[in-house]
Design brief:
By secondary structure, the chain is of the alpha+beta class. The protein has two domains: about 110 residues, Phosphorylase Kinase, domain 1 (2-Layer Sandwich), CATH 3.30.200; about 220 residues, Aminoglycoside phosphotransferase (APH), C-terminal lobe (Aminoglycoside 3'-phosphotransferase, Chain: A, domain 2, Alpha-Beta Complex). About 45% of the residues lie in helices and about 15% in strands. The chain contains eleven helices and eleven strands. It has a five-stranded antiparallel beta sheet with strand order 1-2-3-5-4, with helices on both faces. The termini are far apart.
Length: about 350
């Protein structure tokens, strides 16, 4: 058997389904699966070791093929549709922005301990994520502008369909018209149910709903967005000069107007993390700098749509944390604060639309 190295900081593998004692069994299983799925490149004794500096939402490994080349192997329980989406995006658009190229046919759907497991193999980019820089004031704002410049390149990519659900056989996003996309978002927000809870007055909910529905008339060209990039630097790999070498982890990617959804997500994270208004405004200016958009242009051409998508995100997060609470009974202090901030933000924005 090849090397199965257990490095420090193993708590990164402590997700509910990767607890001991299955870790070693998982590593050994992956060695055999790579040899079976890619026999011309991997041996049963393939070297494999956990990798902690590139992405945290998947279980990530570095693997070495029979030609001594290194690859990144990412594992996720489930049907793998998110990996299929990422594979398609990178195969078609990787020349437009810094990327980690997928291995040819590098998606595998398998089963480990009676549970569906999906694997995704892509090129090894020998740089860490920028996650550790997010709180360094002398670096963070200038890097934020560079990240926004990369996001702009992503948002310039034209795709087919709208939404975040990818249809592999058709190579499109699931909503083929902008109108159906808007209607699906409204249905998913379950606004009537929120009104029944009394968290947001019905008149405010209706005002927001009408403004959101009015976007149906826009019918924009469908453009790609990452939507977990501007404020999640765990998804960018950088060199020592803080230059971006690759964008990773495309599970939240989708298609829409592009720029408004990307910026709205960043602003939501600012609220979630408790940034004060001045800090939010400062970071927004850095984002606009990277997008090469003046503040006046932003107010004229983007602000209204950003506010609408920001409200959508806050409402969706209200439901998200409510579902977690149902499953886990008790929320962690951090998630509880996120839930409260999402509810306050949603209520405040709906009130603005009603005024």
């Amino acid at each position: 058997m090849g090397k199965v190295l257990l490095l420090g900081n193993e708590n990164r593998l402590s997700t509910p389904r990767f607890e001991e004692p299955c870790r070693i069994e998982l590593y050994e299983f992956l060695q055999q699966e790579l040899a079976k799925s890619f026999p011309s490149h991997f041996l049963p004794e393939t070297n494999i070791l956990p990798h902690y500096s590139q992405g945290v939402s998947n279980i990530t490994f570095v693997v070495q093929d029979r030609y001594q080349r290194l690859w990144i192997l990412r594992a996720r329980y489930g049907d793998g549709l998110r990996f299929r989406k990422e594979q398609w995006i990178l195969n078609n658009y990787s020349e437009e922005f810094p990327s980690a190229i997928p291995f040819t046919d590098g998606f595998v759907r398998t089963e480990f301990q009676d549970t569906p497991l999906s694997l995704f193999l892509q090129s090894y980019v020998a740089y860490p994520s920028a996650f550790h820089l997010k709180n360094l004031e002398d670096v963070s704002e200038s890097l934020l502008a560079e990240v926004a410049c990369t996001a702009r390149l992503i948002n310039e990519c034209v795709v087919i369909g709208y939404g975040t659900h990818f249809v592999p056989g058709q190579n499109t996003f699931s909503e083929l018209t902008w109108s159906s996309h808007i209607e699906k978002i409204l249905n998913d927000m379950k606004l009537d149910e929120i009104a029944k809870t009394g968290q947001i007055p019905l008149s405010h909910i209706k005002a927001f709903e009408q403004r959101f529905l009015a976007m149906e008339s826009l019918n924009p060209t469908p453009r790609l967005y990452h939507r977990d990039l501007l404020k999640n630097w765990g998804n960018i790999l950088i060199n020592k000069r803080n230059n971006i070498q690759a964008v990773i982890d495309w599970e939240h990617a989708g298609s829409g107007m592009g720029i408004p959804e990307e910026i709205a997500t960043a602003i939501y994270v600012m609220h979630r993390d408790g940034l004060d208004p001045e800090k939010r405004k400062s970071e927004l200016r850095q984002i606009l700098l990277g997008y090469d958009i003046t503040f006046r242009e932003y107010l004229s051409n983007y602000h209204e749509y950003v506010e609408l998508f920001l409200t959508q995100i806050a409402i969706e997060k209200m439901w998200y944390y409510q579902e977690i609470q149902k499953k886990q009974k008790v929320l962690s202090d951090w998630r509880k604060s996120c839930q409260q901030r999402a509810a306050r933000l949603a209520a405040a924005k709906c009130k603005q639309f009603a005024s």
